[in-house]
Write a structure and sequence with these properties.
alpha/beta; 9 helices; binds thymidine-5'-phosphate
């Protein structure tokens, strides 16, 4: 039996990680055997690449866009062949926090690498694997920045987790906002919206400023429909 492949996408501070976890928990509660993955990561090599990318972004913000693209692609190739495909072949529901649409949005629309190059690398890394559903949590970058900053303030005041986001993510999210100008975040958002518009049957765009529980319900309604057909 072929499994179900669901991808969560969105810009920094969009809440996609929270939603990926909610969906995973819901699938688990409904008796499925889901797998929760995030990109870059999910394999020993992928986690090393993640650390390299995040650390390099901080200490060497001048990393070549092509280097960045190749690193994300390398991590993805490992994840797809070693973890993702075997899970889907085994009939599991896989929830992935970011996938190829991130590369199109960030390295393509954001960094300006030709989309044809991104598509070639995405195909190479995935062998053509595409999601059954991609959920985009759409939120204006200004709003997301306010949200991430507010969460950091709460953490700094020692109140721990806020709105289901871990401290680590809030800190990382804010760092990336500080590194990338708002103009970059806006291009990324447009890149996502264009992808969703081009393939409405496989994309679900949800207003990321809605309460987390409401978003969870909207996502679950759609996933439930797909599970009944699987
Ligand atoms: P996240 O773990 O908070 O989702 O952060 C991952 C970061 O990496 C985020 O800034 C988006 C970026 N990214 C890309 O630029 N291209 C990609 O292909 C992927 C998967 C992530």
């Amino acid at each position: 039996m072929a499994g179900l492949f669901i991808v969560l996408e969105g810009g920094e501070g969009s809440g996609k990680t929270t939603q990926a976890r909610l969906l995973y928990s819901r699938l688990l509660a409904e008796g499925h055997a889901p797998l929760l993955l995030h990109e870059p990561g999910g394999t020993p090599l992928g986690e090393q690449v993640r650390r390299l990318l995040m650390a390099e972004r901080g200490s060497h913000p001048g990393m070549e866009p092509v280097t960045e693209l190749l690193l994300f692609s390398a991590a993805r190739a490992e994840l797809v062949s070693k973890v993702l495909r075997p899970a889907l072949d085994g009939g599991r529901a896989v929830v992935c926090d970011r996938f190829t649409p991130s590369t199109i949005a960030y390295q393509g629309y954001g960094r300006g690498i030709p989309l044809s190059t991104i598509h070639t690398l995405n195909r190479l890394a995935t062998g053509g694997l595409a999601s059954d559903l991609t959920v985009l949590l759409d939120i204006p970058p200004e709003e997301a920045l306010t949200r991430v900053s507010a969460q950091r303030s709460l953490l700094v005041e020692g109140q721990g987790e806020a709105s289901g986001h871990s401290g680590r993510q809030d800190q990382e999210g804010l760092r990336r906002f500080e590194q990338e100008p708002l103009a970059f975040q806006r291009k990324v958002r447009q890149g996502y919206l264009k992808q969703a518009k081009a393939d409405p049957a496989r994309w679900l765009v949800v207003d990321g400023s809605l309460p987390s529980e409401r978003i969870g319900e909207v996502v679950w309604e759609r996933v439930k429909g797909l599970l009944s057909k699987a």
